[in-house]
Amino acid sequence: METGPIGMKRNKEVLWKSPFRLTEEGKERVEELLSLSDRLRQAYELKNALDDWFKTSDETTAKAGLETWMEQAEASGIASFHSCIRIIMVISKASIIRPK
Q1: Cβ atoms within 10 A of the Cβ of 26, count?
Q2: What's the rounded Cα separation, in Å, for the pair 20 and 44?
Q3: How far apart are the two ends of the chain, measured CA to CA in Å?
Q4: Rounded CA gap, 84 and 47, in Å?
Q5: CA separation for the pair 16, 90 (Å, rounded)
Q6: How far is CA 53 from CA 8, 18, 46, 49, 84, in A?
Q7: CB under 8 Å to 11, separation ≥6 — which residues?
Q8: Please, which residues have CB within 8 angstroms of residue 70's CB and are 6 or more apart in sequence?
Q9: Is the Cβ–Cβ distance between 72 and 49 less than 8 Å?
Q10: For every residue of the chain, which 3-state class applies, written as one string?
Q11: Are 76 and 46 in contact (CB under 8 A)?
Protein backbone atom coordinates (compact mmCIF):
# COMPACT_ATOMS: atom_id res chain seq x y z
CA MET A 1 0.00 0.00 0.00
CA GLU A 2 1.34 3.37 -1.01
CA THR A 3 1.22 5.72 2.00
CA GLY A 4 2.80 8.98 0.85
CA PRO A 5 0.85 12.00 -0.39
CA ILE A 6 0.31 10.39 -3.81
CA GLY A 7 -0.89 7.16 -2.23
CA MET A 8 -3.34 9.05 -0.03
CA LYS A 9 -4.60 11.03 -3.02
CA ARG A 10 -5.29 7.78 -4.85
CA ASN A 11 -7.34 6.60 -1.86
CA LYS A 12 -9.37 9.80 -1.48
CA GLU A 13 -12.47 8.27 -3.07
CA VAL A 14 -12.73 5.44 -0.56
CA LEU A 15 -12.27 7.87 2.34
CA TRP A 16 -14.99 10.21 1.03
CA LYS A 17 -17.60 7.49 0.62
CA SER A 18 -20.16 7.04 3.34
CA PRO A 19 -19.24 4.00 5.47
CA PHE A 20 -22.67 2.56 4.67
CA ARG A 21 -21.86 2.57 0.95
CA LEU A 22 -18.49 0.82 1.25
CA THR A 23 -17.97 -2.76 0.17
CA GLU A 24 -16.20 -5.12 2.56
CA GLU A 25 -13.03 -4.54 0.57
CA GLY A 26 -13.55 -0.78 0.87
CA LYS A 27 -14.06 -1.03 4.63
CA GLU A 28 -10.84 -3.00 4.97
CA ARG A 29 -9.00 -0.43 2.84
CA VAL A 30 -10.31 2.43 4.98
CA GLU A 31 -9.18 0.67 8.16
CA GLU A 32 -5.72 0.14 6.66
CA LEU A 33 -5.48 3.83 5.80
CA LEU A 34 -6.80 5.01 9.17
CA SER A 35 -4.31 2.81 11.00
CA LEU A 36 -1.54 4.96 9.50
CA SER A 37 -2.56 8.20 11.19
CA ASP A 38 -4.56 9.18 14.26
CA ARG A 39 -5.16 12.59 12.68
CA LEU A 40 -6.58 11.00 9.53
CA ARG A 41 -8.83 8.80 11.67
CA GLN A 42 -10.06 11.85 13.60
CA ALA A 43 -10.78 13.74 10.35
CA TYR A 44 -12.57 10.70 8.91
CA GLU A 45 -14.73 10.36 12.01
CA LEU A 46 -15.60 14.08 11.98
CA LYS A 47 -16.48 13.89 8.28
CA ASN A 48 -18.78 10.95 8.95
CA ALA A 49 -20.36 12.62 11.98
CA LEU A 50 -21.24 15.68 9.88
CA ASP A 51 -22.59 13.46 7.12
CA ASP A 52 -24.70 11.60 9.68
CA TRP A 53 -26.00 14.91 11.05
CA PHE A 54 -27.10 15.98 7.56
CA LYS A 55 -28.89 12.69 6.97
CA THR A 56 -30.57 12.19 10.34
CA SER A 57 -31.30 15.55 11.95
CA ASP A 58 -34.69 17.16 11.94
CA GLU A 59 -36.02 20.51 13.15
CA THR A 60 -35.93 19.35 16.78
CA THR A 61 -32.40 17.91 16.75
CA ALA A 62 -30.56 19.92 14.09
CA LYS A 63 -29.28 22.80 16.21
CA ALA A 64 -28.04 20.69 19.12
CA GLY A 65 -26.48 18.14 16.78
CA LEU A 66 -24.65 20.78 14.78
CA GLU A 67 -23.43 22.51 17.95
CA THR A 68 -22.07 19.18 19.22
CA TRP A 69 -20.29 18.55 15.92
CA MET A 70 -18.85 22.08 15.92
CA GLU A 71 -17.46 21.58 19.44
CA GLN A 72 -15.81 18.32 18.36
CA ALA A 73 -14.44 19.93 15.20
CA GLU A 74 -13.07 22.88 17.18
CA ALA A 75 -11.40 20.54 19.68
CA SER A 76 -9.80 18.53 16.86
CA GLY A 77 -7.31 21.28 16.04
CA ILE A 78 -7.71 20.50 12.33
CA ALA A 79 -7.63 23.78 10.39
CA SER A 80 -9.97 22.61 7.62
CA PHE A 81 -12.70 21.89 10.14
CA HIS A 82 -12.11 25.27 11.79
CA SER A 83 -12.80 26.83 8.37
CA CYS A 84 -16.02 24.83 8.14
CA ILE A 85 -17.09 26.15 11.53
CA ARG A 86 -16.49 29.75 10.47
CA ILE A 87 -18.53 29.24 7.30
CA ILE A 88 -21.39 27.61 9.23
CA MET A 89 -21.40 30.51 11.68
CA VAL A 90 -21.52 33.11 8.88
CA ILE A 91 -24.34 31.26 7.14
CA SER A 92 -26.33 30.82 10.34
CA LYS A 93 -26.02 34.53 11.22
CA ALA A 94 -27.07 35.51 7.69
CA SER A 95 -30.09 33.20 7.95
CA ILE A 96 -31.18 34.79 11.22
CA ILE A 97 -30.80 38.35 9.95
CA ARG A 98 -32.27 37.84 6.47
CA PRO A 99 -35.84 39.15 6.18
CA LYS A 100 -38.47 36.58 5.30
Answers
A1: 15
A2: 14
A3: 53
A4: 11
A5: 25
A6: 26, 12, 10, 6, 14
A7: 29, 33
A8: 85, 88
A9: yes
A10: CCCCHHHHHHCHHHHHCCHHHCCHHHHHHHHHHHCCCHHHHHHHHHHHHHHHHHHHCCCCCHHHHHHHHHHHHHHHCCHHHHHHHHHHHHHHHHHHHCCC
A11: yes
Give tens-digit pLDDT for 28-68: 999 999 999 999 999 999 999 999 999 999 999 999 999 99
pLDDT value, residue 93: 82
Task: Give the list of residues 6+ apart from residue 92 with CB closer than 8 angstroms, or none.
Answer: none
Residue 56 has, within 13 A of its CA and on its CB side, a CA count of 9
| Global pTM value | 0.81
Task: Please give the single-letter amino acid code of residue 12.
Answer: K
